[in-house]
Design a protein that fits this description.
By secondary structure, this protein is an alpha/beta fold. Helices cover 29% and strands 18% of the residues. The protein has one domain: Purple Acid Phosphatase, chain A, domain 2, CATH 3.60.21.
């Protein structure tokens, strides 16, 4: 784990990334309550839908904050594309096989008609973004290669589903952009020992804590190098900072 600041305070302009929400509106609400009025910049790392059941509520809140982050006192609010958003877009615009794949991966059949109302902005979500020397994306990149090459060629699936060799080697920024120092991503929660916790790879931090299964949502203040965790109300646990 990287060195933590142990500061509980969020300063205006702090950049805070949020791991995979997976339709857990209860956890998203606790996070938003925590950052309300902070004037922070929030970046959701994708996979905001599927598996958790509250897809429509999550989509409505996220779409609202993308338009007007100031309504809860944030300076900026972004959401990146995850593989589950990509599957949903394909399911709504592609073949029956695409629809089946989405359902098999936790797609919400009961609410898909309401979810479809959000198709336009979901289909336009960015694959990655950088703030200062930190790179944010859903799953990872090909080590040592500028991800723009794949995006430009329309091969975004490779980035949205990336695990190895990225998890073992890290981004290898020195081979394509030495000005970048750290990558923050989700997609691959820790299993077994360390489950429900963020973890590090070379020059990177994964903040997917498996919210749908563990009841724990992780956020990371990249400006202060501080982690926040939010648990479901039924778990009756305090928010953790480290």
């Amino acid at each position: 784990m990287t060195k933590s600041t142990m500061s509980f305070d969020i300063q205006p302009g702090d950049v805070i990334a949020v791991g995979d929400i997976h339709a857990r509106y209860d956890l998203l609400s606790k996070f938003l309550e925590h950052v309300q009025g902070s004037l922070a910049c929030v970046i959701l790392l994708g996979d905001i839908i599927d598996r958790g059941g509250d897809d429509v509520k999550v989509l409505e809140v996220v779409s609202s904050l993308l338009r007007e982050p100031e309504i809860i006192g944030l300076s900026n609010f972004f959401c990146l594309m995850g593989n589950h958003e990509a599957m949903f877009v394909d399911a709504m615009t592609g073949s029956g096989d695409d629809y089946l794949q989405w359902l098999q991966n936790g797609g919400n059949f009961e609410d898909f008609a309401e979810m479809r109302e959000h198709l336009e902005w979901l289909s336009e979500l960015p694959i990655y973004m950088t703030v200062g020397d930190t790179f944010f994306t859903h799953a990872g990149i090909v080590p040592g290669r500028d991800p723009y090459e794949l995006v430009d060629r329309g091969k975004i699936d490779k980035l949205l589903w990336m695990r190895e060799p990225f998890l073992s080697l890290g981004p290898q920024f020195e081979k394509w952009n030495p000005e970048l120092k750290k990558i923050v991503f989700g997609h691959t929660p820790k299993e077994g020992i360390g489950e429900g916790k963020p973890y590090t790879i070379p020059d990177g931090i994964c903040i997917d804590s498996g919210a749908c299964f563990t009841g724990v949502l992780t956020a990371y203040n990249a400006t202060q190098d501080t982690f926040y965790q939010f648990t479901a109300p039924a778990n009756a646990k305090e928010t953790a900072y480290y």
